[in-house]
Amino acid sequence: MTADTVTDPPGAPGALRRTSRQIGDVVFKGFSTGSGITILVLLAAVATFLVGMSIPALTADAADLPFGDFWAYVAPYAFGTVWAAALAMLFAVPLSVGIALFLTHYAPKRVRQIFGYIIDLLAAVPSVVFGLWGINVLAPLMRPLFVWLNQYLGWIPFFAGPVSGTGRTILTAAVVLAVMVLPIITAMCREVFTQTPRLHEEAALALGATRWEMIRQAVLPFGMPGIVSGCMLGLGRALGETMAVAMVLSPAAVINVHLLTSSNPNTIAANIALAFPEAYQLGVNQLIATGLVLFVITLAVNMTARWVVARRKEFSGAN
Amino acid sequence: MSKRIEIKDLDIYYGKFHAVSGVNMTIQPRSVTAFIGSSGCGKSTVLRSINRMHEVIDGAYSTGQVLLDGVDLYGPGVDPVRVRRQVGMVFQRPNPFPTMSIRENVLAGVRLNNSKVTRPQAEEIVEKSLQAANLWKEVKDRLDRPGSGLSGGQQQRLCIARAIAIAPDVVLMDEPCSALDPISTLAIEDLIHQLKEEYTVVIVTHNMQQAARVSDQTAFFNLKEQGKPGELIEVASTEKIFHNPDQKATEDYITGRFG
Ligand SMILES: Nc1ncnc2c1ncn2[C@@H]1O[C@H](COP(=O)(O)OP(=O)(O)OP(=O)(O)O)[C@@H](O)[C@H]1O
Ligand SMILES: [Mg+2]
């Protein structure tokens, strides 16, 4: 206290003086600003690396590139990446939202907890294990289904033949991806659904809404930004997932939408993992440049989603 | 359409907790009934039992009867969802749906009941309900703006418009003015006066003057003693309750409040 008396600035009576309590504020402000800057620096470092390493491949003559013309090379993988992730999301999103709704609005308390643990456990499984499971368990299981789909729905391009003999197709890979992103999306949705204000749920119920109508009227609209965020996290993982896809898929460099055949478009990440050990010189640059493309795709997807959410901000209930 | 409510031997429980015991009363159509009493004596609980809203809380149940024009709302085969479409409710804190525009808020209940309302019909319902809630003039130029952008008092009137848009028989209000300023409160009170032309209105309030101003009949609830369930002590015309109550407890409560 004596020190305070000494540093007492002119014109500031005792009660109004800066006290040591505010040192906490200063420290915290410094720390959080520092963390923010660190993120930016890291991002810049990664981006610089990607761009720097990519330029030689992007500017080189197609004839000098070990994998041939860059854009022709990356196109099938870019397509495969987006296609596999989109399929995975197609399965994972409705299921995750459904599970989250079940857990928050239908399940009895005990079931809720047990289920919650199981979902968290699923998130802890390493992707290699998912890869092994995909090859050894899922692929053989899926094959009869593939045959059936091809037999009865083969006229739809998606289900055109010939059916893969191993079952290791893009559809299997997408299912594995879906299982992998499921816990992320479910956890996020569960979180926002439990936060739906009681007030809004009761408003719907008092108007004579059934439980499902209440969910549609109050829970889903309120949770929409959270659902989108969860999907983005999941999509980010699906787009970048390497190991499971590399293991499950029997890949080719093609662009097609056949789900059941043995000629499947590979993904960028899996292709890098498969091709990197043998790459040298410009080949390395070319692979890294495909990584840059993946980075751009992921960024574009994320920004689109943010934009979609922001457009409805006024109606988000944040105020 | 306005209906008569008869409550017979109503007991309400939250799990093992006996919240309210032995309520008997009759509420006439086209009238306003006020529930008064100290905090925790079960006013909200009884009010919510009139549209079975207390049942949305895990473990809550009731015994006894609530009759709406002679039909028991707790009879076998009665769907609580149907009950709530006939008995509307307005809550203590204004709760318009934040993701919906003003128009969609008014139509929220209508869309549940009848998904095939045509545009002209919808427009008519919106205007009529907002007129009835004394809100039309203030919002008619911004029906597509979010309902959460209105002031608290306007939001509460929007909630009233939403409740009456489905043409219920009864409108329940649980302390509808307690989050509002005096001007908005007067606006709602005026509205309650108008509402009773068409609906049976039941309102919970902690404001004695408000009960005296808006209601025809007043019901006084109290706890017999701490830890016992709440009870209906006395119900009579508002005039009588405020000037000449039969029960000592009622008189104590009223005079205590007035000082
Ligand atoms: N969800 C609930 N679960 C368990 N007990 C409850 C619940 N809601 C109310 N109660 C209990 O029921 C009793 C009556 O509550 P109620 O909310 O009906 O009182 P009230 O008269 O409306 O009080 P207030 O004037 O404060 O709103 C109280 O003892 C309360 O603790
Ligand atoms: Mg209450």
Question: Which helices and strands, and how do they pair?
Answer:
The complex is a heterodimer of chains A (319) and B (259).
Chain A: H1 2-7, H2 21-59, H3 70-106, H4 109-123, H5 127-153, H6 170-194, H7 198-206, H8 211-240, H9 243-248, E1 251-252, E2 264-265, H10 268-275, H11 282-311
Helix pairs in contact in A: 2-11, 3-6, 3-8, 3-11, 4-6, 5-6, 6-8, 7-8, 8-11, 10-11
Chain B: E1 5-14, E2 17-27, E3 32-37, H1 43-49, E4 60-68, E5 71-72, H2 80-86, E6 87-90, H3 102-113, H4 119-132, H5 136-139, H6 152-165, E7 170-174, H7 182-195, E8 200-204, H8 208-214, E9 217-223, E10 230-237, H9 238-243, H10 248-258
Parallel strand pairs in B: 2-10, 3-8, 3-9, 6-7, 7-8
Antiparallel strand pairs in B: 1-2, 1-4, 4-5, 9-10
The structure holds adenosine-5'-triphosphate (ATP) and magnesium ion.
Residues 14, 17, 19, 37, 39-45, 57, 230 of chain B line the site of adenosine-5'-triphosphate (ATP).
Task: Give a quick rundown of the structure.
The complex is a heterodimer of chains A (319) and B (259). Chain A is mainly α.
Task: Report what the structure shows.
The complex is a heterodimer of chains A (319) and B (259). Chain A has eleven helices and two strands. Chain A has helices spanning 2-7, 21-59, 70-106, 109-123, 127-153, 170-194, 198-206, 211-240, 243-248, 268-275, 282-311, and strands at 251-252, 264-265. In chain A, helix 5 packs across helix 6. In chain A, 38% of the residues are buried. Helices cover 37% and strands 26% of the residues of chain B. Chain B contains ten helices and ten strands. The longest helix of chain B has 14 residues, at 119-132. In chain B, helix 3 runs parallel beside helix 6 (152-165), helix 4 crosses helix 6 and helix 6 (152-165) runs parallel beside helix 7. In chain B, a hairpin with a 6-residue loop joins strand 9 (217-223) and strand 10. The chains are: A mainly alpha (319), B alpha/beta (259). At the A-B interface, helix 7 and helix 8 of A face helix 2, helix 3 and helix 6 of B. Adenosine-5'-triphosphate (ATP) binds next to strand 2 and helix 1 of chain B.
